[in-house]
Amino acid sequence: MRQQLAEIEARALAAVAAAASAEQLAELRVAYLGKKGELTAVSRMMGGLSAEERPAMGALVNQTKDKVEQALSARMAELRQAEQAARLAAETIDISLPGRAPQRGSRHILSLVQEQIEDIFIGLGYRIAEGPEVEYDYFAFEALNLPPDHPARDMQDSFYFSERMLLRPHTSPVQVRTMQKMQGELPVKIISPGVVYRRDDDATHSPMFHQVEGLLIDKRVTFADLNGTLLAFARQMFGEERQIRLRPSYFPFTEPSAEVDISCFNCGGAGCRLCKGTGWIEILGSGEVHPHVLEMSGYDPEACSGFAFGMGIERVAMLKYGITDMRLLFDNDIRFLHSF
Ligand code: PHE
Is the pTM of the predicted complex or chain greater than 0.90? Predict the structure, then answer.
Protein backbone atom coordinates (compact mmCIF):
# COMPACT_ATOMS: atom_id res chain seq x y z
CA MET A 1 0.00 0.00 0.00
CA ARG A 2 2.88 2.33 0.77
CA GLN A 3 4.25 1.74 -2.62
CA GLN A 4 0.89 2.35 -4.22
CA LEU A 5 0.57 5.64 -2.35
CA ALA A 6 4.05 6.77 -3.38
CA GLU A 7 3.25 5.96 -6.98
CA ILE A 8 -0.06 7.86 -6.92
CA GLU A 9 1.63 10.85 -5.26
CA ALA A 10 4.36 11.01 -7.86
CA ARG A 11 1.85 10.81 -10.70
CA ALA A 12 -0.45 13.36 -9.14
CA LEU A 13 2.32 15.88 -8.49
CA ALA A 14 3.67 15.50 -12.02
CA ALA A 15 0.19 16.01 -13.49
CA VAL A 16 -0.43 19.09 -11.34
CA ALA A 17 2.90 20.59 -12.33
CA ALA A 18 2.04 20.06 -15.97
CA ALA A 19 -1.48 21.46 -15.73
CA ALA A 20 -1.90 24.59 -17.83
CA SER A 21 -5.30 25.85 -16.76
CA ALA A 22 -7.73 26.13 -13.87
CA GLU A 23 -10.03 23.63 -15.57
CA GLN A 24 -7.30 21.04 -15.79
CA LEU A 25 -6.55 21.54 -12.11
CA ALA A 26 -10.20 21.05 -11.22
CA GLU A 27 -10.25 17.78 -13.19
CA LEU A 28 -7.14 16.58 -11.38
CA ARG A 29 -8.69 17.40 -8.03
CA VAL A 30 -11.66 15.20 -8.88
CA ALA A 31 -9.44 12.42 -10.21
CA TYR A 32 -7.29 12.17 -7.06
CA LEU A 33 -9.23 13.66 -4.17
CA GLY A 34 -12.84 13.40 -5.33
CA LYS A 35 -15.36 10.86 -4.01
CA LYS A 36 -14.31 8.36 -6.65
CA GLY A 37 -10.74 9.61 -6.72
CA GLU A 38 -7.67 7.39 -6.47
CA LEU A 39 -6.59 8.56 -3.02
CA THR A 40 -10.11 8.19 -1.68
CA ALA A 41 -10.11 4.62 -2.99
CA VAL A 42 -6.88 3.95 -1.10
CA SER A 43 -8.30 5.27 2.19
CA ARG A 44 -11.22 2.91 1.75
CA MET A 45 -8.78 0.00 1.68
CA MET A 46 -7.77 0.90 5.27
CA GLY A 47 -10.59 -1.30 6.53
CA GLY A 48 -8.61 -4.38 5.57
CA LEU A 49 -5.62 -3.45 7.73
CA SER A 50 -4.75 -4.72 11.18
CA ALA A 51 -5.32 -2.43 14.18
CA GLU A 52 -1.54 -1.91 14.58
CA GLU A 53 -0.97 -0.93 10.98
CA ARG A 54 -3.98 1.34 10.68
CA PRO A 55 -2.78 4.56 12.48
CA ALA A 56 0.52 4.77 10.59
CA MET A 57 -1.11 4.07 7.24
CA GLY A 58 -3.90 6.56 8.04
CA ALA A 59 -1.34 9.25 8.71
CA LEU A 60 0.48 8.45 5.49
CA VAL A 61 -2.71 8.65 3.40
CA ASN A 62 -3.56 12.00 4.95
CA GLN A 63 -0.05 13.32 4.30
CA THR A 64 -0.30 12.31 0.69
CA LYS A 65 -3.70 13.94 0.32
CA ASP A 66 -2.30 17.13 1.90
CA LYS A 67 0.66 17.18 -0.44
CA VAL A 68 -1.56 16.81 -3.50
CA GLU A 69 -3.95 19.44 -2.12
CA GLN A 70 -1.09 21.88 -1.54
CA ALA A 71 0.36 21.23 -4.99
CA LEU A 72 -3.04 21.96 -6.51
CA SER A 73 -3.43 25.33 -4.73
CA ALA A 74 0.17 26.31 -5.41
CA ARG A 75 -0.23 25.57 -9.10
CA MET A 76 -3.53 27.45 -9.15
CA ALA A 77 -1.83 30.54 -7.66
CA GLU A 78 0.96 30.28 -10.24
CA LEU A 79 -1.48 30.11 -13.10
CA ARG A 80 -3.44 33.13 -11.82
CA GLN A 81 -0.27 35.17 -11.54
CA ALA A 82 0.86 34.24 -15.03
CA GLU A 83 -2.53 35.17 -16.39
CA GLN A 84 -2.43 38.58 -14.73
CA ALA A 85 1.10 39.22 -15.92
CA ALA A 86 0.03 38.40 -19.47
CA ARG A 87 -2.94 40.76 -19.22
CA LEU A 88 -0.77 43.58 -17.88
CA ALA A 89 1.72 43.08 -20.66
CA ALA A 90 -1.04 43.18 -23.27
CA GLU A 91 -2.52 46.38 -21.84
CA THR A 92 0.69 48.35 -21.68
CA ILE A 93 0.28 51.99 -22.70
CA ASP A 94 3.13 53.52 -24.61
CA ILE A 95 3.51 56.88 -22.90
CA SER A 96 6.32 57.86 -25.25
CA LEU A 97 3.87 58.38 -28.18
CA PRO A 98 3.60 62.07 -29.04
CA GLY A 99 0.17 63.48 -28.12
CA ARG A 100 -2.44 64.51 -30.64
CA ALA A 101 -2.67 68.29 -30.45
CA PRO A 102 -6.21 69.68 -30.77
CA GLN A 103 -6.66 71.64 -34.01
CA ARG A 104 -6.46 75.37 -33.48
CA GLY A 105 -9.58 77.15 -34.74
CA SER A 106 -9.62 80.70 -36.09
CA ARG A 107 -12.12 83.53 -36.21
CA HIS A 108 -14.38 83.61 -39.24
CA ILE A 109 -13.57 86.49 -41.52
CA LEU A 110 -17.11 87.85 -41.18
CA SER A 111 -16.72 87.98 -37.40
CA LEU A 112 -13.39 89.76 -37.82
CA VAL A 113 -14.80 92.34 -40.19
CA GLN A 114 -17.89 92.84 -38.03
CA GLU A 115 -15.65 93.51 -35.06
CA GLN A 116 -13.56 95.99 -37.05
CA ILE A 117 -16.74 97.86 -38.00
CA GLU A 118 -17.94 97.79 -34.39
CA ASP A 119 -14.59 99.08 -33.13
CA ILE A 120 -14.65 102.02 -35.51
CA PHE A 121 -18.14 103.12 -34.48
CA ILE A 122 -17.55 102.50 -30.79
CA GLY A 123 -14.58 104.82 -31.25
CA LEU A 124 -17.06 107.42 -32.58
CA GLY A 125 -19.24 107.04 -29.48
CA TYR A 126 -21.85 104.58 -30.72
CA ARG A 127 -23.16 101.69 -28.66
CA ILE A 128 -24.28 98.31 -29.94
CA ALA A 129 -27.98 97.42 -30.02
CA GLU A 130 -29.50 94.10 -30.95
CA GLY A 131 -32.81 92.89 -32.33
CA PRO A 132 -34.47 89.58 -33.18
CA GLU A 133 -34.01 87.80 -36.52
CA VAL A 134 -37.62 86.63 -36.48
CA GLU A 135 -39.39 89.95 -36.66
CA TYR A 136 -42.86 91.45 -36.74
CA ASP A 137 -44.03 92.96 -39.98
CA TYR A 138 -44.69 96.07 -37.91
CA PHE A 139 -41.00 96.65 -37.01
CA ALA A 140 -39.63 95.38 -40.33
CA PHE A 141 -41.92 97.47 -42.54
CA GLU A 142 -44.81 99.45 -41.13
CA ALA A 143 -42.99 101.52 -38.55
CA LEU A 144 -40.36 102.18 -41.23
CA ASN A 145 -42.92 103.89 -43.41
CA LEU A 146 -43.66 100.84 -45.56
CA PRO A 147 -47.40 100.27 -45.13
CA PRO A 148 -48.94 97.02 -46.44
CA ASP A 149 -48.96 96.96 -50.26
CA HIS A 150 -46.20 99.58 -50.49
CA PRO A 151 -44.37 98.70 -53.74
CA ALA A 152 -40.96 99.10 -52.05
CA ARG A 153 -41.70 95.98 -50.03
CA ASP A 154 -41.06 93.94 -53.17
CA MET A 155 -37.31 94.56 -52.84
CA GLN A 156 -37.29 92.84 -49.50
CA ASP A 157 -40.45 90.78 -49.05
CA SER A 158 -39.10 87.42 -48.19
CA PHE A 159 -39.47 84.63 -45.64
CA TYR A 160 -42.77 84.75 -43.78
CA PHE A 161 -43.85 82.55 -40.88
CA SER A 162 -47.32 83.99 -40.77
CA GLU A 163 -49.16 87.07 -41.89
CA ARG A 164 -47.37 89.13 -39.24
CA MET A 165 -43.98 87.51 -38.74
CA LEU A 166 -40.99 87.03 -41.01
CA LEU A 167 -37.23 86.63 -41.08
CA ARG A 168 -36.08 90.25 -41.08
CA PRO A 169 -34.87 91.37 -44.52
CA HIS A 170 -32.72 94.16 -43.03
CA THR A 171 -31.44 95.39 -39.66
CA SER A 172 -33.53 98.58 -39.91
CA PRO A 173 -36.23 97.29 -37.49
CA VAL A 174 -33.63 97.78 -34.75
CA GLN A 175 -33.92 101.53 -35.46
CA VAL A 176 -37.59 101.35 -34.51
CA ARG A 177 -37.08 99.09 -31.50
CA THR A 178 -34.33 101.38 -30.18
CA MET A 179 -36.36 104.57 -30.60
CA GLN A 180 -39.36 103.02 -28.87
CA LYS A 181 -37.23 101.75 -26.01
CA MET A 182 -35.57 105.17 -25.51
CA GLN A 183 -38.90 106.97 -25.40
CA GLY A 184 -37.82 110.28 -26.83
CA GLU A 185 -34.49 110.47 -25.00
CA LEU A 186 -31.56 112.06 -26.89
CA PRO A 187 -29.11 111.32 -28.32
CA VAL A 188 -29.84 107.96 -29.92
CA LYS A 189 -26.50 106.65 -31.14
CA ILE A 190 -26.39 102.98 -31.99
CA ILE A 191 -25.08 100.50 -34.49
CA SER A 192 -26.70 97.10 -34.83
CA PRO A 193 -24.89 94.23 -36.53
CA GLY A 194 -26.76 91.05 -37.34
CA VAL A 195 -28.12 88.46 -39.73
CA VAL A 196 -30.74 89.29 -42.36
CA TYR A 197 -32.59 87.22 -44.98
CA ARG A 198 -33.67 87.86 -48.55
CA ARG A 199 -34.73 85.91 -51.58
CA ASP A 200 -31.46 86.47 -53.51
CA ASP A 201 -28.95 83.77 -54.31
CA ASP A 202 -25.99 84.21 -56.69
CA ALA A 203 -22.24 84.93 -56.64
CA THR A 204 -22.71 88.30 -54.97
CA HIS A 205 -25.97 87.67 -53.06
CA SER A 206 -26.79 85.11 -50.40
CA PRO A 207 -30.28 84.47 -48.98
CA MET A 208 -28.72 84.92 -45.55
CA PHE A 209 -26.22 87.70 -44.99
CA HIS A 210 -25.11 90.27 -42.44
CA GLN A 211 -25.74 93.96 -42.08
CA VAL A 212 -24.70 96.70 -39.73
CA GLU A 213 -27.37 99.30 -39.11
CA GLY A 214 -26.44 102.75 -37.85
CA LEU A 215 -28.71 105.34 -36.28
CA LEU A 216 -27.95 108.77 -34.85
CA ILE A 217 -30.69 111.08 -33.62
CA ASP A 218 -30.02 114.33 -31.81
CA LYS A 219 -31.17 117.93 -31.73
CA ARG A 220 -29.72 118.89 -35.07
CA VAL A 221 -28.21 116.10 -37.10
CA THR A 222 -27.60 117.03 -40.72
CA PHE A 223 -26.54 115.40 -43.94
CA ALA A 224 -23.09 116.88 -43.33
CA ASP A 225 -22.85 114.76 -40.16
CA LEU A 226 -23.77 111.66 -42.16
CA ASN A 227 -21.15 112.54 -44.75
CA GLY A 228 -18.43 113.12 -42.15
CA THR A 229 -19.25 109.98 -40.20
CA LEU A 230 -19.18 107.75 -43.25
CA LEU A 231 -15.97 109.35 -44.51
CA ALA A 232 -14.31 108.69 -41.15
CA PHE A 233 -15.53 105.10 -41.32
CA ALA A 234 -14.35 104.57 -44.92
CA ARG A 235 -10.88 105.89 -44.12
CA GLN A 236 -10.43 103.77 -41.02
CA MET A 237 -11.74 100.69 -42.77
CA PHE A 238 -10.16 101.03 -46.22
CA GLY A 239 -7.31 103.53 -45.85
CA GLU A 240 -6.68 107.24 -45.28
CA GLU A 241 -6.71 108.09 -49.01
CA ARG A 242 -10.33 107.03 -49.49
CA GLN A 243 -12.97 109.46 -50.68
CA ILE A 244 -16.70 108.89 -50.48
CA ARG A 245 -19.50 109.97 -52.76
CA LEU A 246 -23.22 110.21 -52.01
CA ARG A 247 -25.64 109.45 -54.83
CA PRO A 248 -29.34 110.30 -54.56
CA SER A 249 -31.42 107.22 -53.86
CA TYR A 250 -34.70 106.14 -52.35
CA PHE A 251 -35.66 104.38 -49.12
CA PRO A 252 -39.13 104.84 -47.63
CA PHE A 253 -37.67 105.41 -44.15
CA THR A 254 -35.14 108.11 -45.08
CA GLU A 255 -35.60 111.45 -46.80
CA PRO A 256 -33.45 112.43 -48.52
CA SER A 257 -31.73 109.11 -49.16
CA ALA A 258 -28.30 108.36 -50.53
CA GLU A 259 -26.35 105.41 -51.82
CA VAL A 260 -22.75 105.75 -50.61
CA ASP A 261 -19.73 104.80 -52.71
CA ILE A 262 -16.08 104.75 -51.69
CA SER A 263 -13.27 105.53 -54.11
CA CYS A 264 -11.81 102.25 -55.34
CA PHE A 265 -8.86 101.25 -53.18
CA ASN A 266 -7.64 98.90 -55.88
CA CYS A 267 -7.05 101.49 -58.60
CA GLY A 268 -7.31 104.68 -56.55
CA GLY A 269 -10.21 105.89 -58.67
CA ALA A 270 -8.76 105.45 -62.15
CA GLY A 271 -11.09 102.55 -62.96
CA CYS A 272 -10.39 98.82 -62.82
CA ARG A 273 -12.19 95.47 -62.83
CA LEU A 274 -13.05 95.64 -59.13
CA CYS A 275 -14.93 98.94 -59.53
CA LYS A 276 -16.15 97.98 -63.02
CA GLY A 277 -14.23 100.88 -64.50
CA THR A 278 -16.07 103.57 -62.55
CA GLY A 279 -13.48 104.29 -59.84
CA TRP A 280 -16.22 103.92 -57.19
CA ILE A 281 -17.58 101.03 -55.17
CA GLU A 282 -20.99 101.06 -53.51
CA ILE A 283 -20.95 100.07 -49.85
CA LEU A 284 -24.18 101.16 -48.19
CA GLY A 285 -27.58 102.81 -48.19
CA SER A 286 -28.32 105.79 -45.98
CA GLY A 287 -30.26 108.98 -45.45
CA GLU A 288 -31.87 111.43 -43.04
CA VAL A 289 -34.42 109.63 -40.89
CA HIS A 290 -37.89 110.30 -42.37
CA PRO A 291 -39.93 112.67 -40.12
CA HIS A 292 -42.83 110.23 -40.16
CA VAL A 293 -40.55 107.42 -38.94
CA LEU A 294 -39.39 109.62 -36.04
CA GLU A 295 -42.95 110.54 -35.22
CA MET A 296 -44.30 106.99 -35.29
CA SER A 297 -41.75 105.95 -32.66
CA GLY A 298 -42.11 108.87 -30.31
CA TYR A 299 -39.60 111.46 -31.57
CA ASP A 300 -40.67 114.98 -32.52
CA PRO A 301 -39.33 115.81 -36.02
CA GLU A 302 -39.52 119.52 -35.13
CA ALA A 303 -37.24 119.04 -32.12
CA CYS A 304 -34.69 116.56 -33.47
CA SER A 305 -33.35 114.95 -36.61
CA GLY A 306 -31.16 112.01 -37.46
CA PHE A 307 -29.42 109.91 -40.04
CA ALA A 308 -29.38 106.17 -40.59
CA PHE A 309 -27.36 103.81 -42.72
CA GLY A 310 -27.20 100.10 -43.45
CA MET A 311 -24.18 98.31 -44.86
CA GLY A 312 -23.57 94.71 -45.85
CA ILE A 313 -20.78 93.06 -43.87
CA GLU A 314 -20.12 90.50 -46.61
CA ARG A 315 -19.64 93.35 -49.07
CA VAL A 316 -17.17 95.12 -46.84
CA ALA A 317 -15.28 91.84 -46.25
CA MET A 318 -15.18 90.99 -49.96
CA LEU A 319 -13.94 94.45 -50.89
CA LYS A 320 -11.37 94.62 -48.14
CA TYR A 321 -9.93 91.16 -48.83
CA GLY A 322 -10.55 90.87 -52.58
CA ILE A 323 -12.98 87.93 -52.34
CA THR A 324 -14.84 87.49 -55.60
CA ASP A 325 -17.51 84.93 -54.68
CA MET A 326 -19.74 85.50 -51.65
CA ARG A 327 -20.46 81.79 -51.33
CA LEU A 328 -16.86 81.22 -50.19
CA LEU A 329 -17.84 82.98 -46.98
CA PHE A 330 -20.39 80.28 -46.17
CA ASP A 331 -18.84 77.11 -47.64
CA ASN A 332 -16.72 76.58 -44.53
CA ASP A 333 -13.73 75.35 -46.51
CA ILE A 334 -10.99 75.18 -43.88
CA ARG A 335 -8.32 76.30 -46.35
CA PHE A 336 -10.26 79.48 -47.07
CA LEU A 337 -11.14 80.13 -43.44
CA HIS A 338 -7.53 79.76 -42.28
CA SER A 339 -6.18 82.25 -44.80
CA PHE A 340 -7.17 85.36 -42.86
N1 PHE B 1 -32.29 98.93 -44.79
C2 PHE B 1 -31.72 99.29 -46.04
C3 PHE B 1 -31.42 98.03 -46.83
O4 PHE B 1 -31.37 96.99 -46.28
C5 PHE B 1 -30.45 100.08 -45.88
C6 PHE B 1 -30.68 101.40 -45.19
C7 PHE B 1 -30.57 101.48 -43.82
C8 PHE B 1 -30.97 102.54 -45.92
C9 PHE B 1 -30.77 102.69 -43.19
C10 PHE B 1 -31.15 103.74 -45.31
C11 PHE B 1 -31.05 103.83 -43.94
O12 PHE B 1 -31.21 98.11 -48.01
Answer: no
Report yes or no on 83 lying in a domain. yes
Nearest residue (CA) to ligand 1, atom 5: 310
From the CB of 238, is ligand 1 less than 6 Å away? no
Same domain, 81 and 141: no
Domain end, chosen from 53, 88, 123, is at 88
Cα–Cα distances in angstroms (integers) from residue 51 to residues 2, 44, 55, 56, 76, in the given order: 16, 15, 8, 10, 38
Q: Which residue range forms the structural domain that includes residue 58?
A: 2-88
- pLDDT tens per residue across all 340 residues of the chain: 888 888 998 998 998 999 998 889 989 999 998 888 888 888 888 888 888 888 888 888 889 999 999 989 999 999 999 989 989 988 888 888 888 988 888 899 999 999 999 999 999 999 999 999 999 999 999 999 999 888 877 777 679 999 899 999 999 999 999 999 999 999 999 999 999 999 887 777 889 999 999 999 999 999 999 999 999 999 999 999 999 999 999 999 999 999 999 998 888 889 888 788 999 989 999 999 999 999 999 999 999 999 999 999 999 998 888 888 888 999 989 899 888 8
CA of 255 to the centre of ligand 1 (A): 12
Closest CA to 32 of 69, 59, 3, 60: 69
Domain boundary among the residues 59, 88, 117 is at 88
Report the nearest atom of ligand 1 relative to the CA of 172: 1
Do residues 289 and 196 both lie within one domain? yes
What SS3 class is residue 290? coil
Q: Is the CB of 254 under 6 A from ligand 1?
A: yes
For 265-282, give the DSSP string.
TTTTTS--TTTTTSSEEE
**Are residues 136 and 64 part of one domain?**
no
- Domains in the chain: how many in total? 2
Same domain? 145 vs 269: yes
From the CA of 289, how far away is ligand 1's center (Å)?
A: 11
From the number of C-beta atoms within 10 Å of its C-beta (0-12, 13-18, 19+), residue 312 rates as buried
CATH of the domain at 114: 3.30.930.10
Amino acid at the residue 137: D
Flag whether 93 is in a domain.
no
